[in-house]
Amino acid sequence: MTHTDRILPGIVLMLGFCATAPLIDAASKLAAQTLPVGQITTARFVVQAALMAPVCLALGQSLRLPRGSGWALIARALCLIASTYCFVAALTVMPIADALAIAFVEPFLLLILGNLLFRDPVGPRRIAACAVGFAGSLLIIRPSLAAFGPLALFPLGTALFFALYMLVTRSLSRRMHPIAMQYHTATVATAICLPVMLLAAGRDWPTLSPIMPQGLAWVWLAGVGAASAVAHLMMTYALRAAPAATLAPLHYLEIVSAVALGYLIFADFPDVLTWVGIAVIVGSGLYIIARERHTARQPATVAIAVGLTPQDPTP
């Protein structure tokens, strides 16, 4: 199969990711109706690690932690734990589409952090696009703050920690296969989260003290991890089949899926101001992608710039 022939499967897989990724959010929101945020976060990594283990073995990847990558994997896991926790906490009060739209400022934070930490070139046009994109998030945050309180700021925490997570991924990706990286990150995150859950058991820590799931809550917990594993696999193989520059604009279709799921399951539909904010964020993001496609010599540069890599594209 030629490279051109593989672009269509890559686009199909990317669309599959956009349809599947909001299922993580929907399952999290359903689970959060009866279970604490910390328990949902932990379940995501436990289930994801269990599902990724046979995939690793099937691809000939070792289940043993690679030498010299321990601290980087711990940092990656901590960033992903914090990113996931913030997003699930936001979903306890906010519609999925609102929280996701705010979290989409992550590419802008990634550009800024990349410049500060790695001296990546960021021109005035991209800085302006970052400012406009952040202004778009404020259109969603302001009414959300009035309606939901400080929890409306949690998607910004998701964006910040996920941007840091992507920067750690940037260094690890040179040493590890993306599938192995997903598995090892999930196992390290599990090893961090489970002791915290055990320590919190029986204590008056509302967001961490585990509760025995009842009925469909088991399904929602399993669904968080299963949807994470499937969505990330789709993204991984999409970016192995087609250039990131081709796939990056499609990532914003995830908002469409999030709106549809939010309406069908929770009867949530964005108001006019939220739609304006979404349009501003998406427009600014697409401008940055266009600039990267114009200036980048390698597709990987675009992947880093917009937060789309074969390793782990969403919180």
Description:
- The chain is an all-alpha fold and 315 residues long.
- The chain has one domain.
- 75% of the residues lie in helices and 0% in strands.
- Helix 4 packs antiparallel against helix 11.
- The longest helix is centred in the first third of the chain and has 29 residues.
- The chain is globular and about 50 Å long.
- The C terminus is likely disordered.
Give the SSE map.
Layout: H1 3-31, H2 37-58, H3 70-91, H4 96-103, H5 106-118, H6 124-148, H7 154-172, H8 178-200, H9 217-241, H10 244-247, H11 253-266, H12 272-295, H13 299-306
Helix/strand order? HHHHHHHHHHHHH
Count of domain modules: 1
The percent of residues in helical segments reads over 70%
Query: How many helices does DSSP assign?
Result: 13
How large, in whole angstroms, is the Cα Rg? 19 Å
Strand proportion, as a percent range, falls in under 5%
Secondary-structure content class: mainly alpha
Mean pLDDT: 84
Q: How would you describe the oligomerization state of the chains in this entry?
A: single chain
Contiguous uncertain segments of 5+ residues: 298-314
Overall geometric form? globular
Gap between N and C termini:
32 Å
Strand tally, please? Answer: 0
Q: Mind summarizing the main beta sheet? A: none
